[in-house]
Specification:
Helix content: 25-40%
Structural class: alpha/beta
Strand content: 25-35%
Oligomer: single chain
Number of domains: 2
Length: 288
């Protein structure tokens, strides 16, 4: 039975922890977070500032932090011999991130899976299979309507923001609009905060609008959806759709990826590079 720590206790951290609890081959051993208080719903598990403060060193760790904070936390864990998975979602930096983490993983003689979330991650696997089935063609991924966790975290990390989330609206054929709802901290300048948000790498090439409100409670939702469509030669068409609670689905994918990480040779991987059976509970005979 592998012992797993959750690094972070936000929506994804709690969802991943719940998925680990439901896994027969892994067990949750605690949370790593800034606040040293029990996580609601997981009061029996310790909350500490470092994995080395846990009663036992974990075998693996699920990184449930904003993408910009993942690498620093992950390197130390890997070099200490702890397997990791993350939901890093800045597509343009994925390959550079994997290369750097591969060095740390090999030092610690362990493995990690990078970008093991909804997208990149599960959607990446689906796109690869569609490309194999229809080698010549064109493909579109449409997200939403729903809340993007990566974009929401990026907004909340900007100075002057009390709370915020980013809602993704599909315009069709891979084009999207980001609707941001945000609550300013007292005394902050709207134009300055807006400039900081829209110049962030998550939004600088996107179509966006920002609504500054007194509260976002009436707008907040964790639901999300995605549809992937590939059009190929001779009229071929493949489609895949997914909808549900964003943190829950991401947490489940992270837990399954943690299982797969333990089977790989030392190094860093994407989900697309790993046999699908490695993510699953049960034998290949049952799955087929």
């Amino acid at each position: 039975m592998k012992k797993i720590a959750a690094i972070g206790a936000g929506n994804i951290g709690k969802a991943a922890a719940r998925a680990i609890e439901l896994s027969p081959d892994m067990e949750l051993c605690g949370f790593i977070r800034r606040e040293l208080k029990p996580v609601k719903g997981f009061e029996k598990f310790p909350s500490v500032k470092s994995v080395f403060d846990l009663p036992e060193k974990p075998d693996g760790a699920i990184i449930c932090l904003p993408s910009v904070l993942m690498e620093e936390a992950e390197k130390e864990l890997l070099e200490s011999g702890i397997y990791t998975v993350d939901a890093f979602d800045i597509h343009s930096e994925l390959f550079a991130m994997r290369k750097r983490l591969a060095e740390s993983a090999k030092k610690g003689k362990v493995s990690c899976i990078v970008g093991a979330g909804w997208d990149p991650g599960l959607d990446s696997v689906i796109r690869m299979l569609m490309t194999a089935a229809l080698p010549k063609g064109i493909m579109f991924t449409d997200f939403g309507p729903g809340m993007s966790m990566g974009h929401s975290a990026a907004v909340r990390m900007k100075g002057g923001i009390e709370n915020a989330f980013s809602y993704t609206l599909p315009l069709g054929y891979g084009e999207h609009f980001r609707k941001i709802y945000a609550v300013l901290k007292p005394g902050e300048d709207k134009k300055e905060v807006e400039h900081r948000i829209l110049s962030d790498k998550y939004f600088e090439h996107e179509r966006c609008s920002i609504d500054f409100l007194d509260s976002i409670d009436d707008f907040f939702t964790t639901g999300h959806s995605a549809k992937i469509t590939r059009f190929g030669e001779m009229g071929g068409k493949l489609s895949f759709s997914l909808s549900g609670d964003n943190p829950t689905i991401t947490g489940q994918i992270l837990a399954s990826s943690m299982r797969a990480a333990f089977i790989q040779k030392p190094g860093a991987y994407f989900m697309t590079e790993i046999p699908p059976v490695d993510f699953c509970i049960g034998s290949l005979e049952k799955i087929l």
